[in-house]
């Protein structure tokens, strides 16, 4: 998985202490504890039941958000600002000099 950070988020991170930056970096792409519990329960099921559960979950998500685009007004505003700020690949970020972004 390749992670990219918006330049806006890097400006935010530049204002944080090192412990906060490290916590955010470590949590990127990490499931919540609830998601981990659900994944563990899913893995306990036989293959046939996993397929059934996956189909059910897919139908629930599609019924709630058919095109996977639901955003609150605030999220939409923040997303536009981040998109307009540009992106930097995680591997290219100078974590010791976040002020340069």
Overview of the structural elements:
By secondary structure, this protein is mostly helical. It has one domain. The chain is built from 5 helices and 2 strands, in the order E-H-H-H-H-H-E. A two-stranded antiparallel sheet has the order 1-2. The longest helix is centred in the middle third of the chain and has 18 residues. It is extended. The relative contact order is 0.21. The model has no long low-confidence stretch (mean pLDDT 85).
Q: What is the count of structural domains?
A: 1
- The number of distinct helices, counting runs of at least 4 residues, comes to 5
- Derived structural class: mainly alpha
Shape: extended
Estimate what percentage of residues fall within beta strands: 5-15%
What is the typical, i.e. mean, pLDDT?
85
Cross-sheet strand order for the largest sheet: 1-2
Order of helices and strands: EHHHHHE
Distance between the termini: 23 Å
Helix content range: 55-70%
Number of strands: 2
Biggest sheet descriptor? 2 strands, antiparallel
Q: What's the alpha carbon Rg, rounded to whole Å?
A: 18 Å
The low-confidence parts are: none
Brief rundown of the structure:
60% of the residues lie in helices and 6% in strands. By secondary structure, it is mostly helical. The two termini are 23 Å apart.
